[in-house]
Amino acid sequence: DGRGGGRARAGSQRHAEGDCGGDGPIGAWAWITIAYYAAFHSVAIVCAWRAQSQILLACALALFVGWIFAVCWFFVGGKHGISWGYAVIDAGLAAYFWRLSERRLFPALLFYLHAFLVAYYLYASIVGMTRWWAAAFTNRIVELALLYVIFGAALRIFARRKQSREARRQRAPLNAV
Questions:
Q1: pLDDT of amino acid 30
Q2: Three-class SS of residue 18?
Q3: Which of 21, 33, 68, 93 is deepest in the core (most CB within 10 A)?
């Protein structure tokens, strides 16, 4: 075709269509990716639950529900309009995190991440982008959001344990020598 890379480009396009919601069958890598993110979301939810924080748990569960909708859109979206479906899901998450951030500071970063993703989907729709690159980029943003929730929960767990150790140490009688 004069642009070079004809065979490699066609092969990568078939890979993207087979594994990223194209007309062909769903590939094994798509199922592995779904299992990976299911485990990642489970870790975030368990960490938020263990941190005994309603806001962390609300953020983790919202990310999980958004991911469930994204997986459903992955199977239904097809070739046309796939980024708009994800944009609607991320706009809903951004609105939810905006409401949560009115009372707390923690969800504000999640709002900005999802608002950025909505702008990214708009850019991808206008400029055009292969699904593989779009998925690679957005998956890193989702991983960043999940790590933010997990590390926030870990910090809260650590702080609560340190606080309880300090309280026990202050209540403990001093041993006279």
A1: 82
A2: helix
A3: 93
Closest CA to 106 of 67, 57, 140: 57
Say how far apart CA 70 and CA 90 lie, in whole Å.
Answer: 9
Structural tokens at position 145 = 């959001």
Beta-carbon neighbour count of residue 33 at 10 Å?
17
Q: Which residue, chain included where needed, has tokens 């796939």?
A: 82
Spatial distance between the Cα atoms of 135 and 120, rounded to a whole number of angstroms: 12
pTM for this model (two decimals): 0.77
Q: For 64-117, what is each residue's pLDDT tens digit?
A: 999 999 888 888 875 556 778 888 999 999 999 999 998 889 999 999 999 999
Are 106 and 127 a contacting pair, CB within 8 Å? no
